[in-house]
Amino acid sequence: MKIINVVGARPNFMKIAPLMEAYRDFPRLQPLLVHTGQHYDERMSDLFFHQLGIPEPDLNLEVGSGSHAAQTAEIMKAFEPVVLRHKPRAVLVVGDVNSTIACGLVAVKLGVRLVHVEAGLRSGDRTMPEEINRLLTDALSDLLFCTESVGVDNLRREGVGAERIFLVGNVMIDTLLKNKAKAEASTILEDLGLPPGGYAVMTLHRPSNVDDTGVFGRLLDAVEAIQREMPIIFPIHPRTRNNLSRSPLGARVEGMAGLRLIDPAGYLDFLKLMAHARVVLTDSGGIQEETTILQVPCLTLRENTERPVTVEMGTNQVVGTDPTKILAAYRRAVGGRGPSGRTPPLWDGQAARRIAAILDEKL
Ligand code: UD1
């Protein structure tokens, strides 16, 4: 049973890694790995393959960057012949990036079953490209694997049959748990001269935050105040770096002595940075989940989250982009009572194994 597994962008890599490993225990499943090439920089792609032990992709479509329409269309055009040639039993996609919907659409139009890992998450915000990708991918999928029970509820409400939905846990957390001890060997804290528990980590790359200079400027108002009290490490996404280089905000960032920009970090360095941070500020989806398991306070610089379990059971506060609110949340986080000790059900390192077992049975 050939299964084509698709990856394209950075957050896909940590989700596919445990699946590629889990397939080994199910010899009937013959995985093929296709990289669309949506992300292509060494630090956005290859580094993750090496650190996570992901096998070399069987194929790289080398599609690269582009507008949403151009990128999605190029991925579709390049992926269609791959599906025609291999005639897989299923195509498996993860997450919510353009590669996810592009390859999903190709699969179903060719009559190939589609499997979505990380199904059912909804921010309710249709201005977010990922939300559109999630809605459409789930509408097309035959088997839908959810990380949290809200995902199951959302899919049921949208009319997806219960027999197609499986609550299995979180493959991204499989990768975190597997690599946590290994990440401790990273020397990133020493390299950057950071005291454990005495710094903040920030990531920003959502178009709604970094493509709009008004919003980005307001976020920097909060950052300016925080970096006077605590160093902030800011591994910078290429989208964000490009925007800063073209805007007066770039000079403002350079003027903040406590804000330290570094290149996008590899998986292990970033995991170590998060694990020992006093607080994490982010607009990423995955980081809300990772900090929940690491029990590190997380401030989500967005108006909503598609991952509500990280707020209910985890360490996450959804604080938006208003500097006054961010600062208040920062004070609550650093003066807080400490970790709750709770973790979401099934976030136990076994999600990929559960998925592979279900695929072995159902496909
Ligand atoms: C994509 C995903 C987003 C995910 C993010 C993680 C979509 C719609 N968005 O956003 O959900 O959270 O990846 O990183 O799929 N670039 C490089 N090198 C690279 C990749 C990108 O320089 O290896 C630059 C290019 O200028 C490119 C820009 O970053 O135009 C944006 O890349 P793109 O893949 O379009 O979207 P992301 O912002 O990375």
Structure description:
- It is a single chain.
- The chain is of the alpha/beta class.
- The chain is built from 17 helices and 13 strands.
- Strands 3-2-1-4-5-6-7 form a seven-stranded parallel beta sheet, with helices on both faces. A six-stranded parallel beta sheet has the order 10-9-8-11-12-13, with helices on both faces.
- Strand 2 (30-35), helix 2 (46-52) and strand 3 (59-60) form a beta-alpha-beta unit.
- The longest helix has 19 residues, at 68-86.
- The termini are close together.
- The chain binds uridine-diphosphate-N-acetylglucosamine.
- Uridine-diphosphate-N-acetylglucosamine is lined by residues 9-11, 38-41, 44, 65, 96-98, 129-130, 205, 237-239, 242.
